[in-house]
């Protein structure tokens, strides 16, 4: 096995553990490269099937390309797609204006997820976050509990030894499962390249710009790049000195913004 | 370049410089994104501090305010020779379960000691835990040499005292290096201050570390995770030792049924073989009964089926462990109820002082040699033979202990 095989197998093990140990499970699909890779691994783990709902937290501010990609592949892969929107907040016209990104992410993503978990009774959620994306995410466990307020008790996380993952949840919590935690951005792209996984073309350069990380259109800025193919992205990432989420506004509006978002239940 | 990253945990007493060392290493090898350096400069100047390398890893607000690491972090980095995953482990005694979490993921370890302060409580406890987790070789760094005037005698005396301790607990130091993480002496580059030291820098020592051998030639052990019936019946699991091949005869435990591997199943592929670490599906020639926790084994060399074994455990729960109390034993994909039937010895994990023998209680952060009895048969082996079938956790409400099996009792 090479390094990518090792990463793939470790992730498939985690996905299968989560599916076996938790009855009501769903996965979050943001339609970005990481959760699309996760979805691909789920299909590999279950022989082409996706045996649980795939949840999209729709803020309504996503790029048009994201919606198109979602609908095309949801059909192709026979997904049980659940679209979660915080309708109340959208009716109140919550939007990502300068200075309130903490509120906007909180309402349109975290709160939408809370509502979906409550409505559908999910006990475990698979998500595609990675340690190298952000220092706060580097502190995560593979199986990470959230209480009923959705809080992440980052100062008192349970021990996680070897590949023996948490398999019991108390009545009031849900478990976040992170099968891609140990992958780097470059690993993801090398795997997309090797396995020919489809991705939203916002990642590919047009007119000297491309997106390293995608989400809501108003809060994402592109980076300068000539990488208009996956091969060129892999080459670019080997030498870049700019971090992946440098174009994501919600990470840096205030000091420790990501920590605050995450402790309240953000992904 | 070697494709596989070496996973390395940095351990040592609180404030002996673990986070600073990693920050310095990343900085000196150009591994940090420009915007990250700018961000840390800004935070440090806002706090009226000089550039603080520890901030690269200590991302939590509480960690930076208090200047300590609370939870374990993993960071990726490459030298010219290979890739690394560096695991920063907290050095404060309160966060020992986070240190164990980090260390359990590592191939090898570094222990860092403050030259001025010398050997402290966690310097010893961490080494002891590393040994328990199966790590045998470590690199010892004597840090903050600048604070002791780069004095060779101070280095030698701290080093010798510590090597004696490692020797006592069966760990081997492949290298002992005098460094200053904050000044960069002997981290990624040599030092003009330490002309009396001729050995490798920390980075050179890392690059020469040998990656542990794969278990692919060991006897087959395949741990069943789940049974799928999407379009056909597939037994899904992980090869935890050896290599599983199409056509192989296997013994299925605990039933003892014998069968053959008809096919190996991956999505859209039927490989001929699956080596250690592979998650794979199996179809057998006979219709066998099988469930999660079953182990497929090489028929010529099968693991033990037993309800009793001796083990070393590290208790990491504020609530003490009582002899005879109900616990859940988890090993690979197996799970069984059980109890600790005897506590032979209890040792203080820092001083190695014997706290009691044939006792009734194990307290938080104590290491004990125990006998465990499970309610039903489990398939296990000594940790030295098959690590995955020789290491386990004990669960009460949460994971309360980790341990390794030293002797199977039949």
Largest sheet of chain A: 6 strands, mixed
The CATH topology of the largest domain in chain A comes to: Rossmann fold
Kindly state the mean pLDDT of chain A as a whole number?
90
Radius of gyration of chain B: 24 Å
So, CATH architecture of the largest domain in chain B?
3-Layer(aba) Sandwich
Terminal-residue CA separation of chain A: 31 Å
CATH architecture of the largest domain in chain A: 3-Layer(aba) Sandwich
Task: Give me the count of strands of chain B.
Answer: 23
Number of domains of chain B: 3
Strand order of the largest sheet of chain B: 2-3-1-4-5-6
What is the CATH level 1 assignment of the largest domain in chain B?
Answer: Alpha Beta
Shape of chain A: globular
Largest sheet of chain B: 6 strands, mixed
**Tally of contiguous helical segments of chain A:** 8
Count of DSSP H/I helices of chain B: 8
Whole-number count of domains of chain A = 2
Kindly name the structural category of chain B. alpha+beta
Oligomerization state of this entry? heterodimer
Strand content of chain B: 35-45%
First-to-last CA distance of chain B: 47 Å
Biggest interface between protein chains, with counts per chain?
A-B, 53 and 63 residues
